[in-house]
UniProtKB/TrEMBL annotation, chains A, B:
Lineage: Eukaryota, Metazoa, Chordata, Craniata, Vertebrata
The organism of origin for this protein: Echeneis naucrates
Protein name in the entry: Diamine acetyltransferase 2-like
Signal peptide positions on this chain: none
SUPFAM superfamilies: Acyl-CoA N-acyltransferases (Nat) (SSF55729)
GO biological process: polyamine metabolic process
């Protein structure tokens, strides 16, 4: 199946937003999605964007049952390791189920790695849920390490009232 | 003890670099540190920086045995959740041992939360090693959740030859 991977444009945000929800449903956390396509447009397509995104597009003849041509996306940004330096972080990688098995996911992942290397990133990182063995296997087969298993790193988060409390206690200097 | 928290300047990179190594020694991974203060200067203090940093500075009369006045730092950057939006990610938080117990660590953490809130971030995230219970307790006491424990998120990484292999397989489009 012919497909093209290209940098997302502002006009793709409705498609990206639709697929963000599809991915969250797969991850069994769809009630957590609070983002709108307007926010994606603002945060990814203005000056100093908070993320970059690639989309996979098929030709007219292969469009989905519902008429969609943008059938996959990879959303990423740059982070920093104080031990190793620049890192590209893959937040989401998704291909619509009916388009899987055509190398689109692999193509998106490789393209993110290529973009990262061009920016002198020495790492590509991401997170995956512990029950999601198909995805873990997909990455492991390509050489990824599981750092939670091997080094014991845990994710920690402040949000809501806890984040407000912290911010409100900031020293005035 | 009097201390001031301020945005790091390029001239602070030698102090930051010194403390990055001290923190890595504490985390028992000092052999992993490959970053130089020149790289920190390039990556944090040019256009479109990869990170931002706060430092804690004490007055002359309180300087360390070795003569250091910059005695703590918080290095952070912005990431993005496709479910919730803007996030501030705290990569490193460190206070030199002889200056602990004076509220400097708490001050740095709160200041990062404040900076994040000003940028409309809805989350402050970070990672901590599973054996490092003092640090886990420090964050938990302030309301942080452990997402690896509660939701099962694992960290995954590609680097070195595995990252090169991925990048080299990127579709040409």
């Amino acid at each position: 199946m012919d497909f093209k991977i290209r940098a997302a444009e502002k006009e793709d945000c409705k498609d990206i937003s639709r697929m963000i929800m599809e991915l969250a449903v797969y991850e069994k956390m769809s009630e957590q999605v609070k983002i709108s396509h307007e926010e994606l447009e603002r945060d990814g397509f203005s000056q100093n964007p908070f993320f970059e995104c690639l989309v996979a597009e098929v030709t007219d003849e292969h469009k989905s049952k519902e008429g969609f041509k943008v059938v996959g996306y990879a959303l990423y940004f740059y982070t920093y390791s104080t031990w190793k330096g620049r890192t590209v972080y893959l937040e989401d990688l998704y291909v619509m189920p009916e388009f899987r098995g055509n190398g689109i996911g692999k193509g998106l992942l490789s393209k993110v790695a290529e973009v990262g290397k061009k920016k002198q990133c020495v790492r590509l990182q991401l997170s995956v849920l512990n029950w999601n063995t198909p995805t873990q296997d997909f990455y492991a087969a390509k050489g990824a390490q599981d750092l939670t298993a091997s080094e014991g790193w845990h994710f920690i988060r402040f949000d809501g009232q806890n984040l407000d409390n912290l911010a409100n206690e900031a020293p005035k200097s």
